[in-house]
Amino acid sequence: MMVLSLVIPAYNEGGRIGGTVTHVCKYLDQQKYDWEVIVVIDGGPKGAADEARAAAGARSNVRVIENDVNRGKGYSVRRGFRDARGERLVFIDADLSLPVEGLEGMMARFDAGAEVVIASRTAPGSRAEGAAPAGRGLMSKIFNFAVQTIAVPGIGDTQCGFKGFTARAAKAIFAVAESDRFGFDVEALYLARKNGFRIDELPVTVRYHGGSSVNRLSDGVRMFADILAIRTRHR
After folding, report:
1. Are 158 and 147 in contact (CB under 8 A)?
2. In the beta sheet, which residues pair with residue 92?
3. From its phi and psi, is residue 90 left (phi > 0), alpha (psi between -120 and 50) or beta?
4. Which of 50, 73, 114, 202 has the fewest CB atoms within 10 Å around its CB?
5. Are 126 and 205 in contact (CB under 8 A)?
6. Phi/psi zone of residue 225: left (φ > 0), alpha (ψ -120 to 50 degrees), beta?
7. What is the DSSP string of 180-232?
8. Of the candidates 92, 99, 98, the residue with the CA atom closest to the CA atom of residue 73
9. In whole angstroms, what is the distance from residue 12 CA to residue 22 CA?
10. pLDDT, tens digit, 9 for 90 and up, residues 60-101
11. d(CA 103, CA 5)
C-alpha cells in the first residue's frame, strides 16, 4: 500500500518548481516506504507545469495537475489530497523554506500515534536561517493573537506550510473544509480539534530566501475574514 502522498501546491513558481521536484524526489528515493508526489499548479506564468513534468521525467509516481485559474492554496491542497492514495497525506510549500527532510520527524510522530502533524516555527528546537521578509513578524503576531482567541487556542504556529494528516483525518477534515486561501490552515486545525484528532507540533528549520507570493496586507485581511467565518461555518 502507498504510505506517503506528498502534495506540493505551486503558485508563481516557474523557474523554481523543477528544482523543487528534483530535490524532493532525490530525498524520497532514499526512503524505504512507497510514495507519490502530486504537484498542483495553481496559475501563474505559463510553463511551470511543463517544468515540473520535465523534472519528474518518466516517474509514474509523480503527477502534475493544473487548476484552470488561480484558486488558492487551500483549494490546491484539497485537490491534491482528493487524488492521493497514501496512508499519510502531507503538503509542503513549493519553495521548500521548510525542508522536505523534516518528513523524517513527521513520519516518526505518525508512528507514535499522531493523526495530524504540523511543522511549527515556535516549537522548542526550531530555528531560522536567513531574514524573514520585512513586516512578517508583526503581522504573524497579530494574526496569531486572533487565531488563539477565536479558533485554535494553544497552537503556536498555524500557518507553517508543512502539515501532515493520516488518511482518516484528512478525509474527515477536508470533506467539509471550505477555505480556499491562506485561512485554510486554521480551518483544518479547527476541524481536527473538533473531531478529536491528536495534533503534534514538530520543530523545524525554516530557511528564508525571498520570493514569497504572499501579499502581507491583502492576504492578511483575507486571513482575518476566514477566521471569523470558520466559527460560524462549523458550529
Report:
1. yes
2. 162
3. beta
4. 50
5. yes
6. alpha
7. -STTHHHHHHHHHHHTT--EEEEE-EEE--S-----TTHHHHHHHHHHHHHHH
8. 92
9. 18
10. 999 999 999 999 999 999 999 999 999 999 999 999 999 999
11. 11
Cα separation, 177 vs 64, whole angstroms: 23
Residue 93 CA to its chain's centroid (Å): 6
In this structure, what C-alpha cell is assigned to residue 103? 518528513
Phi, psi (degrees; rounded to nearest 5) at 131? -100, 135
Q: Which amino acid is at 202?
A: L
pLDDT digits (tens, 9 = 90+) for 5-18: 999 999 999 999 99
